[in-house]
Amino acid sequence: MSADSAAARHELDGRIKGDGPLARDTLLYTNTHPHSQAHESAVKHVTGRAAYIDDLSAPANTLHVALGLSPVAHGRLTRLDLKKVKAMPGVVDVVAVNEVPGHTDIGPVFPGDPIFVEDEISYVGQVIFAVAAESHRAAREAVQAAVVEIDEQPACLDPVAAAERKEFVRPSHVQQSGDWEQALNNATLTVEGEQFVGGQEHFYLEGQACLVQPTEDEGVVVFTSNQHPSETQKLVAEVLDIPFHAVTVEVRRMGGGFGGKETQASPWACIAALFARRTGRATRVRLPRAEDMRATGKRHPFHNRYRLGVDDQGVILGGEITVIGDCGYSPDLSDAIVDRAMFHSDNAYSLGDARVTGHRARTHTASNTAFRGFGGPQGMMVIEAAMDDIARRMGEDPLTIRKRNFYRPGRQTTHYGQEVDQIALLKELTDQLETSSDYWERRHAITEFNAESPIVKRGLALTPVKFGISFTAKHLNQAGALLHVYTDGSVMINHGGTEMGQGLHTKICQVAARELGLDAKEVRITATRTDKVPNTSPTAASSGADLNGQAARDACMKLKQRLFDFAHEHLYPDQGLDREDMRLEAGHLITGHGESERRIPWGELVQSAYLNRISLSEKGFYATPLIHYDRNVGQGRPFYYYAFGAAVAEVSVDTLTGEYQVDRVDILHDVGDSLNPAIDIGQVEGGFIQGMGWLTSEELKWNDAGRLISDGPATYKIPTYGDLPPVFNVNLLEGHPNSMASIYRSKAVGEPPFMLGMAVWSALRDALASLADYAEAPRLDTPATPERVLMAAETLRAKYGARNDTWPLEKGAE
C-alpha cells in the first residue's frame, strides 16, 4: 500500500472510529445539534428486534404462495392447464385470471397492468397464475407442474426503435419557452450530443412481501412492505369486489423501498388477498430475489439527446432537448416520471429559449416504476453532459461554464414557467464548496499529474443539484395525522407516511414533541394503517416529512389551543392565567415571565382536562399551497420549492484496463433548517452512494430473448464498503432556512442527494478528457463500468493518436 493510500485508509478508519477530521466537523455538529436524535427504531434494527413482514407471527395454518411466471418476453397464451398443479402434494388452491371476482386490471393510474395474464404476454416474469400450498417449497414445486403453451412473438427491447414507431404507453409531452430555433440560429456555437442512461434495480434488502389475514366480515387485513398503503387498499378491494372499508392495510416499516414499493407492492397483496378470501386462511407471499428482480420494474433507462446554442462565453441561449423513457410494457407511473425528467433537464442552469420533449416508449420488459429521484436524475444527466461538452469546446474548466449558466437575476425562470427562488443560495453553496474542497488547487495538481502520467489519469468535477419538491400530481400533495394524548401524559401519533429506514417516523415524533413541549421519548408512533389515517398519498417525492410533518403539527396545534382555552377558563381561575402568553415547554404549561411565571406540569394539565371532559385526541391535515401545472400548455408551478446541493468528486482511472477508484468526495447540501441533522447527514451519504452506484457499477442486462440475466447479487453489483471514498466529507449548509413555509423551514432530503452522484460520472469524463489534452469529453454512457471507460479511452486514443509507447498526446494528431 502506498503512503497516500495508507493515509487515506487511516483517514477512513479514524472517521469510522469517530476520531477523524470528518468526525470532528460533521459528526460533532450532528451529535450536539439540539434537533439531532437517533432513529426511533435504531436499537431494534441493530439488535434484530425490528419486525419485518417475514418476522410477523402468523396462524399455524398460514398458506404460502408461489407464482407461475412467463418464460418469454412477448407472445400469446394459447393453453394453460393447471390440473396437475392442483394435484401436487400440499396444494390448497390455484388461481388464474378467471378466478378473480373483481377487477383484473390493477394499473395504479392508467389501465394496462393485469393481475394475471389473460391473453397477451408482455415480459419475462409476468404472472400467469399463482399457487397456495401448505409450505413455500410445496408451492414452488407445484408451479413446475403447469402446462403452459405460448405462441412466442418478436419482442421489442429498444426504446428508441419503439419511439420511432410511435409505440408509446402514454402520449408525448412538450414544454417550451421562447423561440428555441431562433436561439440556435443566433448562437456563436452549437453543441449537440446523445447519451444512454441505464436503469437501476431497487435492491431493497427486504424483498416484496406481504401477509394477508381474512376477517370475519368478508374483509382482509394486509400486512405489507409498502410505500402506498391507501392505493393497495383500493386495489385489493377492487380485485375482491368489496368496499374499501373492508380492507385494512398496515405498514410498520420496510427494509428499504426507494420507490420500488410505491406501486409494485400491490400485486402481491392482491394475490394473497384472493387466496385468503377463497380459503379463509392467512396467506403469505414473499418473492425470492431472482423472481423479485424479474417480475418488478426498475428505474427507467433513458435515451437523451440535446442541441444547444451558446454565446462566446459558453452561456446557453437556447435549444432543444429530447428524452425517451424506457417505460416497459405498461404506463405504471411513467407519465409523471418522464414529466419529472423533463422538469429537471435544466438541473441548475437556465436553458434560455428551449423546447423539451419527452417520449414514453413501450418495450417488452417489466413495467418500469418509481425510483429515488423519480426521473429527475435521468433528466439532469443530459444537461450535465452538455456542460462538460461546452467546456471542452470553449477550452474552459467545466466548473467555470457551470457557474456561468446557473440560474441568476434576469434568467431565473425555468422552461416550464416557474421562477426559481433562492438563486443566490445556489451560487453561495457552490462557492463555499469550491473553497472548502480546494477545487482549484486540486485542479492544478491533477492537470500536472496527468501531463506526467501516461497510464493513470485523474479527474475532478463539481456538479450542482436543483431538485423540485412536490408531487407533480397535484392531488397527492396532502396528508393527514391522528394524535392521542393519554391520561398519564404519554402521546401517540399516527400519520399517513411510511417508514423505510429514512427516519420519517423519528422526525414526526420530534415534530409532536416540539409542539407539545415534551421530550421525544414521551411520544410514540404507531404503524401506518388505513383505518387510522385514510386516503393517504404515497411516501415518495421527498415529501414525507413536509406533508406528514405539517399534518402532525396541525393536530398538535389544534389540541394545544384547546388545552390553552381550558386552562384559561377552568384551571386555577384565581391565578389569572394569561391566555395569550401560554406556551408548552419542558413538560409544562407555562404562562408569564420572571416572578409572575406560572408552571403547570404536563401530566397535571392532561389529567385536569380529562376530568373536565376535554377531548385529548385530534386529527390534522395539510395540503401544499401554490402549486399548479397545466399540461396542455406545459407551464406552471409544479414545485413548492427547490432543494440545492453540490458535490466534488475526484477519481483515478487506469486507462489500460478501464478500472478506476473514487479517491475523494466533498458534499455540501441544502436542507434548510434541518429537522434532524444526524438523520439528514445519513440520507445525504446514502443517497450519494446509491447515485454513484447507479452511474458506475449497477448494470442491468437482458439477453436477446428479453430475459433479465442480472437477477441477483452475483451479476448485479451495488456499491459495497470497498467502494466508499477514502475521504468522504459531508456537510449541511447552515444559516439558510427554506424561503417557503415548510415544516420549521426545513427542506426535503430523501431524493436530492441521490443526484450528487453525477459528480463521479463527470469526474470520469474529466479524467478521460486528459487523453485528448482536454479538447474533448468522450461520450460515456451509464453505468460507466470499467468496460465502458476502457472503450471511451480507446476511442480517444484512436482519434488523437499516440507517441512512442507511453502515449503522451499531441492535440489534434490523427
TrEMBL record:
Keyword Iron among record annotations: yes
EC number: 1.17.1.4
Any Pfam family: Ald_Xan_dh_C
Needed co-factor(s): Mo-molybdopterin; [2Fe-2S] cluster; Mo-molybdopterin cytosine dinucleotide; FAD
Keywords, alphabetical: 2Fe-2S, Iron, Iron-sulfur, Metal-binding, Oxidoreductase
One function term, GO molecular function aspect: 2 iron, 2 sulfur cluster binding
Domain Aldehyde oxidase/xanthine dehydrogenase a/b hammerhead: 47-154
Gene3D superfamilies: Aldehyde oxidase/xanthine dehydrogenase, a/b hammerhead (3.90.1170.50), Aldehyde oxidase/xanthine dehydrogenase, molybdopterin binding domain (3.30.365.10)
Source organism, top-level taxon: Bacteria
The protein's enzyme class: oxidoreductase
Entry's family note: Belongs to the xanthine dehydrogenase family.
Protein name per Swiss-Prot or TrEMBL: Xanthine dehydrogenase molybdopterin binding subunit
Species assigned in the record: Vreelandella sedimenti
Taxonomic placement: Bacteria, Pseudomonadati, Pseudomonadota, Gammaproteobacteria, Oceanospirillales
